TrEMBL record:
Domain of life: Bacteria
Protein name, per record: peptide chain release factor N(5)-glutamine methyltransferase
Species whose genome carries this gene: Mesomycoplasma hyopneumoniae (Mycoplasma hyopneumoniae)
Classification of source organism: Bacteria, Bacillati, Mycoplasmatota, Mycoplasmoidales, Metamycoplasmataceae
EC top class, as a word: transferase
GO biological process: methylation
A GO CC term assigned to this protein in UniProt: ribosome
Gene name of this polypeptide: prmB
InterPro entries from the UniProt entry: DNA_methylase_N6_adenine_CS (IPR002052), HemK-like (IPR004556), N5-glutamine_MTase (IPR050320), SAM-dependent_MTases_sf (IPR029063), Small_mtfrase_dom (IPR007848)
Length: 238
């Protein structure tokens, strides 16, 4: 029954991209081996960009598309934008496609950096792509927008299609689900411009961290009713 359900999911994605509605022998084998549907197809296409998934990188979810739509409401032409924990580059590339801004992608993973460079070239977009552990290799400057979709899951049982094909370093936060947010916010004054915005993708395990330590952050749910976003605008100091 499970394999039949995954076949339907694969056909649904193929229909979405106007691909032939057939499942090959190789695709059947990949379904049996729990390959993610997006890995079988080889790419995702959202927000005007095509994101290939050749490397072992975090697969963008539809919830991240919601985050991008929120950023689009405040981003301006010429803004300096930093996408931390950028993975495949989806967020930064989608923003670069939307508006002429100066965008930097940063990730600690060599595979993520390679994937982001490939995706940038394919989509004919010019961005600054840096290998960096959060802010470590980012020249100190003031960004108008900082966005991060860092690891935020507790060590927990996930589907094999996730655990076997996506890097654990992009999924799990240690020692706490909010550890990456904590590290980023410790240095935020050095990198976020006055009146600048910071956007995070989160889950319910981190909402209490924001409510207790950063009560000015707006916490919102995604289209499925799950806690998913935290964002805040820095007020200029008088």
């Amino acid at each position: 029954m499970l394999i039949n359900k995954r076949k339907l999911e694969l056909l649904k994605e193929k229909q979405r991209y106007n691909l032939p509605l057939k499942i090959s022998k190789l695709e059947n084998l990949k379904l049996e081996l729990d390959y993610p549907i997006q890995k079988i197809i080889g790419f995702i296409e959202m927000e005007g960009v095509k994101i290939f998934l050749d490397q072992k990188v975090f697969i963008p979810r539809y919830e991240t598309q919601e985050l991008i739509l929120k950023i689009k409401k405040v981003i301006k032409k010429g803004d300096l934008v930093l996408d931390l924990c950028s993975g495949s580059g989806f967020i930064g590339l989608a923003l670069a496609k939307f508006i002429n801004a100066k965008i930097t992608l940063a990730d600690i993973s060599d595979e993520a950096i390679l994937q982001a460079k490939l995706n940038a070239k394919y989509n004919n977009l010019e961005l600054n792509i840096i290998k960096s552990d959060l802010f470590a290799n980012i020249p100190e400057q003031k960004f108008n927008i900082i966005v991060a979709n860092p690891p935020y899951l507790k060590e927990e049982k996930l589907a094999n299609s996730v655990l076997n094909f996506e890097p654990k370093t992009a999924l799990f936060a240690w020692p706490e689900p909010f550890s990456f947010y904590e590290k980023i916010l410790e240095k935020i004054d050095n990198f976020l411009a006055d009146d600048g915005w910071i956007f995070f993708e989160i889950d319910y395990n981190s909402q209490d961290f924001f409510k207790k330590n950063y009560p000015d952050f707006i916490i919102e749910k995604d289209i499925n009713g799950k806690t998913r976003f935290a964002y805040w605008q820095k007020t200029a100091k008088k």
